[in-house]
Amino acid sequence: MLKEISPPLANIRDVLVGTAVEDEREDGSSAIGYGLTLAKAAGAHLTVQSASWRLSGDDAWLGDFDYEGVAVIDRRLDALARSIADRSAGDAAQAGVVCTTEAPSLPYPDIVSRLAGRARLHDLTVLDIGPRTYDLDREMIEKALFHSGRPVIAVPPGHDAFAARRIIVAWDGSAQAARAANDALPFLRAAEAVEIVSIGDEPETDDAVPGAEFAPHLARHGVSVSVNDLPRGESIAATLRTQAGLFRADMIVMGAYRHSPVREFFFGGVTRSFLRGSPAPLFLAH
């Protein structure tokens, strides 16, 4: 009797979505919709952490602010975060997804630390790519990725629904790229087309594995894979972004680096560029 083959996303059993309300003018979270539809596709449990950034307390930068006024803002942000959590729970119930919600009100550093701790308890974490050059969303991505041991899907605005029919694997032959591709295997196996994109540049290590040599490994795992070697062009990030558009990629898989020994969290140049604006959700692993 043949053993039944599990669905491609069956190994994903729990998904964490993290959001942080910093401003009463929040435009909404694409990560919540993306995480909900991903959990539904995988038959996974969904956890939504909708945190509010509490301004009162030990934040020394507040200085001579009107603490009564700050307390009012805290209550408003907390109410907004709870409203987001409640709405997420309702949407999940309507979609038939088992969902747990949390709405902690915490000072800035505690939000990112709590999120990283919770990320260790889930198969993957889904977070927003914020619209600003540097914000709490990006800090959450960095902390969750480098301190949880789990992959992160970073979702740009406008990508409210999970899709992974066509996936690009950004390949530089490094251990981080191999780790990212391995962690993304459930998505790669489920995809209609996967393209390993290697962009002309000197490899970072002498023992880097070319994309053409890595492709058979993915093929043995049932991935429909091809290899595309491209010239560097204007920059690696620009070339990769253009190719993602031409390939109509639903997801981009890339390894994340910590390049700076001075700053605790600091992405390498290509990843940092994509976190400022990506044509598709990023599957990141370290």
TrEMBL record:
Residues 165-284 form the UspA domain. InterPro entries: Universal_stress_UspA (IPR006015), UspA (IPR006016). Coiled coil: none annotated. Transmembrane segments: none annotated. Belongs to the universal stress protein A family. This is Universal stress protein. The lineage of its organism: Bacteria, Pseudomonadati, Pseudomonadota, Alphaproteobacteria, Hyphomicrobiales.
